[in-house]
Specification:
The protein is an all-alpha fold and about 170 residues long. It is about 75% helix and about 0% strand. The longest helix has 26 residues, at about 55-80. The model has no long low-confidence stretch (mean pLDDT about 90).
């Protein structure tokens, strides 16, 4: 991991609450803000050392703002495209093609396999977050661990699953 990435990761962990509040004001909900903050963690891991970042806090908050704005725009586009309205008889068949279904099943199998490879604690936390929809704070209080540890477990699980998907391609 680069020096910038390490410093930004530490800063993200220290400023996480402030970042979630900032992002929440932009995207409008705590769950969406938590998701954007997780995406921010992945983005920070990719930051290179060249050029060096002189004001890491400003960089981190700008990156969070940009991700939040992108998320809000995507949600508005989605809402505009899929708002309820009269359906036309001319609409093409929306059922997925056989090839798409096969690829999706294969990807699902890879993700399921990757999840089975996780430690029981990591798997439990991922399930609570992604399936049950609990916040990091709720998970932390249920399991008696810190919210920061929950975030680390989720990041570890997501990185592992993404790694398994990437190695298959």
């Amino acid at each position: 991991m680069t020096t910038n990435a390490v410093a930004l990761t530490r800063l993200l962990l220290a400023e996480r609450a402030s970042l979630v509040r900032l992002v929440q004001r932009i995207v409008g909900s705590v769950p969406a803000a938590e998701d954007v903050t997780q995406s921010l963690w992945f983005r920070v891991q990719q930051v290179e050392d060249d050029p060096p970042i002189s004001n890491k806090r400003a960089y981190l908050f700008r990156l969070a703002t940009n991700l939040a704005v992108d998320r809000a725009k995507a949600e508005r586009r989605h809402d505009a495209l899929f708002e309820d309205g009269p359906l036309s008889e001319d609409v093409a068949d929306e059922s997925p093609l056989a090839e798409r279904m096969l690829l999706d099943r294969e990807a699902l199998g890879l993700v399921q396999s990757a999840v089975r490879e996780l430690s029981p604690r990591c798997r439990t936390i991922l399930h609570m977050r992604r399936v049950e929809g609990l916040t990091a704070s709720e998970i932390a209080s249920r399991l008696g661990i810190s919210r920061q540890m929950v975030t680390r477990y989720i990041a570890q699980a997501m990185a592992h699953c993404l790694d398994r998907l990437d190695t298959d391609e």
